Every structure is written in C-alpha cells, then in structure tokens.
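User: Can you recover a sequence for this backbone? Please restate the input before giving your answer.

Assistant: Of course. Working from this structure:
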C-alpha cells in the first residue's frame, strides 16, 4: 500500500501480506460516498473501521524488530521549545543550561525552571534541559543533505505544561464596565404577523394577487 513505505520495514507487511491479521483495514478498493457532492474530490471514502485492540495486537510483535533510531522516534518525549537566540526567554535558557552543564544522565530530567510570563507574552510552564547543548555552534546536516550548519541562531529547551488550574470566567482587575444603555435603535424591528408579511406571501399578499381588495371580496 501507499502508506506502508514511511513505516518501519517490520510493519510494512501488515499492509500487503495476504496473511496479515489486519489486512481488511486497508482495502485496495473501496466505495466513495458522493451524496451531496458535485466533484469527485469532494467524495467521502468509505473505509473500514479500525479496531484498536486488533491493530495494537498486530503491531506488538513488530516492535522487537525496530532499530534503535526507530525506537527513539516511536518513544514519547517531552515537548521542546525552539527560540531565536535574541528572544526574551533565551537568556533564561542559557542560564539554566550553564548552571547545570555538569549534570548528567537521568538527573538532567529533574532540572527545571519556571517560565517568566512577562518574557513570553503570557505563556506559562517550565523550562527543562535538553539532552545536549541548548545552542550548539555546529549542527550536523541530517541524512547527508549537505554541509553542517555553522551559523546556528536557535536555542532549544524542553517544555512542561503548567499544572492544571480551575478556570474562573471573570472580568480582569481594573476593568471599568460601560453603562448599560439600550436605545431604541438597538432594538430589532418588530416582526409582522404571518398574514401581514408580503415578503412571504401572506394572506393580504394573496388577496392582492387575486384582485380581492374590494369591500365585497
């Protein structure tokens, strides 16, 4: 299938092998719902529903064949911030990194610093140490795409969301509400009764169309 190549080699047969336990999830032919659609590209592909338990059971044996890089890509890690070196928060990242330059291993994951929201336009949370340098002078070009980058102006740090707080919808301190004044122009116009609404072909409109406006009608 076209979706198989981006996946690890061990998982690709799940899309194409006739003996795959989840081959029915990826049909080569399927119906397209054109109900209410004008163009073919607007159609909705009617694909089978994927059973999560079956999918996970089929993928589990493939995990043992993953390479070290694939395991790293498949792991769940913390979010990261990438800032320009002249960003207002960059000095805090440099300070955190320099203060714990000698910290190694799992101890680096225990280091954090609270973000000053005044430097981030209101963003809160915690800064964490990255695995290497916060601002390496040389960045190797990935996948042999060219020469290494030697003009790096990006600063990196780990990021942890702040603790969840109960949201309180209220006016900010110092807010001065405007006077509550409703004028006549603010009111919507009264709606005519159904038999008086000529736009909708009411009772009077029908009488006028038939010429029944005389007294004897």
């Amino acid at each position: 299938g076209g979706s198989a190549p981006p996946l690890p080699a061990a998982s690709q047969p799940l899309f194409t092998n006739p003996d795959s336990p989840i081959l029915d999830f990826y049909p080569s032919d399927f119906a397209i719902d054109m109900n209410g659609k004008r163009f073919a590209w607007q159609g909705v592909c009617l694909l089978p529903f994927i059973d999560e338990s079956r999918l996970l059971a089929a993928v589990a044996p493939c995990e043992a064949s993953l390479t070290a890089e694939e395991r790293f890509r498949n792991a769940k890690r913390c979010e990261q911030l990438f800032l320009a070196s002249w960003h207002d928060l960059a000095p805090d990242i440099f300070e955190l990194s320099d203060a714990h330059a000698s910290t190694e291993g799992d101890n680096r994951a225990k280091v954090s610093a609270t973000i000053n929201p005044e430097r981030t336009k209101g963003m809160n949370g915690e800064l964490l140490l990255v695995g290497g340098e916060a601002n390496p002078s040389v960045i190797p070009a990935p996948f042999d795409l060219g020469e290494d980058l030697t003009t790096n102006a990006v600063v990196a740090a780990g990021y942890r969301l702040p603790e969840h707080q109960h949201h309180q919808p209220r006016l900010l301190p110092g807010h001065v509400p405007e006077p509550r004044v409703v004028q006549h122009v603010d009111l919507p116009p009264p709606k005519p009764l159904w038999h008086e609404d000529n736009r909708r072909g009411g009772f009077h409109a029908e009488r006028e169309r038939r010429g029944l406006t005389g007294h004897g009608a």
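That completes the design. The chain has a mean pLDDT of 86.
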